Amino acid sequence: MDDMDDVDDVDAVIASVPGAALPADLVAWWRLDGVAATAWIPLDFAPLEPAEALDVRDTLVRIAREKAAHSDDHAAAAEYLPGFLPIADNAGGHHLLVDLRSGEPTFGAVFLWDHERPELGVPLWDSVSELLANAAEALDDAHPDIASFTTPSAESPPAPLPHPVDWTAVETWLGSRLPDYYKQLADRYGPLDFGEYLWIHVPCVRKDRFDYGDWLRETHRAARIAARQLPEGERPAVHPHPGGLLAWGHSRGGDVLFWDTSGSEDPGRWTVVVQHSHPAPGSGLLPFHRYDLTLTGYLRHTVRAAGEQPFPPGPLLGPLPGSIARTAYLPTAEPWTPPAPTAPRLTEAERRIALETGTGLDALRLLSPPPERPYLGGGTWEALFAELGTRLPTEYVELMEVYGAGDWGEWLRFLTPLRTGERRFVTRVEQVLGAYRMHKDRHPHHYPLVPWPEPGGFLPFANSYDNDYLGWLTAGPDPDAWPLIVWPRHAEQGPALADGLIDTLLAWQRGALVTEGLAGLDEEDDPVEKAGFDAWDDSAYW
């Protein structure tokens, strides 16, 4: 069906509704020429032809009567449905009904009919005219956004980025078009805090706080890893795979919000998928929960009134306050520009050395280039050894002289060894071991290590961004013979590692070492891209 051109059917419908009158605004709408039959009505509904309306109603009434014997809700629906007329449906099997019951306060109002939950609820619109006005507002280029159901924050109102986003460049980098309404929303509002709970991310950047491209890559990587934990038939594809989920926001609770790009070639019809972080048992939430709503439709229903039934049925965030504000941590964000293509950092021969054939510090230098000026702190090794009462392994000292303090692979942080004052190495070690002793006193079976400086005790020198710790078991008088061990935060204590420090770092960054506490590579990661070392200076906490 391309157009609702057969307006003669309107008279047939009027004549076929005994004892009821059609609302004047419905009749006027149905008499219009050239009304598109696509899903332009809010919530992805497409209008029914007048000739279809009665047939669809008869079907709904018949189904309700068939189920009435087993369901009080269906029995009630079988009584009131003849007084309503379907005017639109969607791909989920839901309908919009107009109330034809003369004398009722809701005559002419538009209700949602959910075939799985036959409860009438409250009207979505008070009239067909209101529905059409709402649809026109959503389709109007000047208002392709959320202004109709939100209020800007007085303290931190939304504001556009200082310069326009180069959408052509962004979409070329993505390899996909983006919904027009999203681009217009981003141009008008900039990075957005919605309902004091959701962040809607737009292509912007603020140094050391947010980079749109980095956020997409890491968000999609985490989603792919999470999806692989599901049965094969339940795993969603994730961008850049064709039809994959494409992220657009996240919540304060750790939920990630995506578009499902597989549902339509028209980005304006992409629906929302939410990766809920902590679904409550019995909530009905799936790991990647699909909603039959576009981005703006989803936002609209997070701020639904307390008595308003969510659509589609089932779990949905909210109700949230209808507020919009500038994202607090991006007050001075600039438009994000896709990075220019660069040549590979390593030649094929160098990659083989870095990932396969190379050994020791030479291979590690290729895989994770060291800084020009390593930062160690202002003290000396001799002073540190004196304060500890022991020297440290020669391999550790050699590594630190080359790299200094910093983090490896955006995960493993090496303490600054020669810093003096309150933030010195020994102070950090004592803080960590104080926490370990507390845990050990409460749960000795889960914390079997002996803390340093007891003989053979655990002496940490690095930690992860998730508070796992890497250190030595100080067994014996020769520090060069001390084995390495990881104290994992979220797993039982494992055995000592088999290799020395440099070989351990090399194997881990190659993706060849898998152990609790050291984040592993995803099967789609390029080890050369994920490896790396970021050097610190004296401003670093660790």
Automatic annotation (TrEMBL):
Which residues are in the Knr4/Smi1-like domain? 4-134, 164-301, 369-508
Q: Coiled-coil regions in this chain?
A: none
Q: Which InterPro entries would you find in this protein's record?
A: Knr4/Smi1-like_dom, Knr4/Smi1-like_sf
Kindly give the Pfam families that the UniProt entry links to this protein: SMI1_KNR4 (PF09346)
Q: What is this protein called?
A: SMI1/KNR4 family protein
